[in-house]
Amino acid sequence: MNGKVAKRNGKGAEMDTSGAESNAKGAETSAKGAEMNGKGADRSVKGVESNAMGAERTLVVEHVTPEVRNRTRKLRKRMGKVRK
């Protein structure tokens, strides 16, 4: 029995070292995560820029004709959004 226990202990030691390696890998992935966060920040800046562009576009909206307004009102009435 003692021999078997010794072998198991040996395997346990090997697994411990592999665990340390996997921890090191985890640290690498967390560093990658930090890089991704940086990219996210870039994207948010881009989002703000696109919002600004959207605001510019809204200024160039054509005048809504009464016919179109009535059509949309009829649709909304059918859906039960408008009370009239």
Which features characterize this protein?
2 helices, single chain, 86% helix, mainly alpha, 84 residues, rod-shaped
Task: Write a compact overview of the structure shown.
With 84 residues, this protein is mainly α.
Structural commentary:
This protein has 84 residues and is mainly alpha-helical. It contains two helices and no strands. The chain has helices at 2-59, 66-79. The radius of gyration is 32 Å and the shape is rod-shaped. The N and C termini lie far apart (89 Å). The model has no long low-confidence stretch (mean pLDDT 65). Residues 1-10, 71-84 have a biased composition (Basic residues). Residues 1-51, 63-84 are annotated as: Disordered.
What's the structural blueprint in terms of helices and strands?
Elements: H1 2-59, H2 66-79
Region (Disordered): 1-51, 63-84
Biased composition (Basic residues): 1-10, 71-84
Proportion of helical residues: over 70%
State the distance separating the first and last CA atoms: 89 Å
| Rg over alpha carbons | 32 Å
What's the number of helices?
Answer: 2
User: What's the mean pLDDT score?
Assistant: 65
Shape: rod-shaped
